[in-house]
Amino acid sequence: MLFLQLLLLVVLLPGGDNKDDFQEPVSFQLIQISSFYNRSLEENLGSGWLGELQTHRWVSNSGTIIFLWPWSKGNFSNEEWMDLEDLLHMFSIGFLQIFHNSVSQRQLEYPFKVQLAGGCELHFGEASVGFIRVAYQGSDFLSFQNRAWLPSPNGGSRAQHVCTLLNSATVAREILHKIFFETCPRFLTGLLDAGKAYLQRQVRPEAWLSTGPSPGPGRLMLVCHVSGFHPKPIWVMWMQGEQEYPGTQRSDVLPNADGTWYLQVFLDVEAIEAAGLSCRVRHSSLGDEDIILYWERHNSMGLIILAVIVPLVLLTGLAFWLRKRWTYREFPSTSLPLE
After folding, report:
1. For the whole model, what pTM was predicted?
2. Order of strands, edge to edge, in the sheet holding 243-244?
3. Which 3 state secondary structure label does DSSP give 335?
4. Which own/partner contact pairs does 96-103 have at CB distance under 8 Å and 24+ positions apart?
5. Residue ranges of the chain whose pLDDT lies below 70
């Protein structure tokens, strides 16, 4: 009866050929991380990602999909989303049960963790590509290709055993192919269109300079911070004049809470060589106007501030001391001898 319901749901979800071209490859994927502690205890975390941006969250016990952005529904109707929720929830239940059964058959042992990623990719001028991959304890375990589950080369007998169980569910395999290889590309195209204003926004970066922990005597660790930019691609380099200064190192580009990005670029340099260096930032939001921060100016400003603050502190201290001394003289002790 369950398979018949799933088959009907597949019919309700029409596929579609992708007609739009994208200049850069873009992907959408659903990720489920399942921690198996024992036969009756497991924990599941589900999410949906457009590239590196989380767009959906999945409540495992009910199968409910939560939309994290106003445009996360793409161009799918509420009815289509309800059908998808049912499909994914039913598949998740069966998928998890197979791993529990594998423990019963002594192929796996509690506790263990399974990660599943399924989605699709769109490439400029090429057909869309669907994918489903499964990892066991952080290592490649299974993949889904040509409507069948295949064990990874390093999966061993465990992967072969799980593949056998999964491949026995013929209708479930047709459902997975329909979702990730046909419906997913259509959804991804609609998601990109619905979120176009947000995804293609241009946000100018902010940049500033600082020093990190000293790498050694007579050396400086120069740090160029760049934050708040969108989209993600950016070019940041320490320069000497118009030449890139060798030895520049950069951190990973990390997300901010507001969907923009943050980056640090480091340079370990002799202190006497720091003067004349600059940090140059290029980003699509800046057009042809690069951000250029000069270290000597940054350093000079620090010296100017120091030159102003230190005398001010000294003068304040001197004034306090003089006032205290004047007060002491103004009101001398008036003790009288006792008779």
Report:
1. 0.77
2. 243-244, 235-240, 277-282, 291-294
3. coil
4. 96/34, 96/36, 96/42, 96/44, 98/162, 98/165, 98/166, 99/34, 99/36, 99/162, 100/36, 100/39, 101/165, 102/158, 102/161, 102/162, 102/165, 103/36, 103/39
5. 1-23, 297-339
- Looking at residue 126, what is its pLDDT? 82
The pair of structure tokens assigned to 25 is: 């490859």
Q: What would the 3-class secondary structure string for 54-92 be?
A: EEEEEECCCCEEEECCCCCCCCCCHHHHHHHHHHHHHHH
- 112 sits in the region (left: phi over 0; alpha: psi -120 to 50; else beta) called beta
* Phi, psi dihedrals of residue 227, rounded to the nearest 5°: -145, 160
Radius of gyration of the chain (CA): 31
Encoding tokens for residue 144?
């889904």
pLDDT at 316 (0 to 100): 63
What is the tens place of the pLDDT at every residue in 255-267? 998 999 999 999 9
CA distance 333 to 243: 73
The dihedral built from the CA positions of residue 2, 129, 35 and 85, taken in this order, carries a sign that is negative
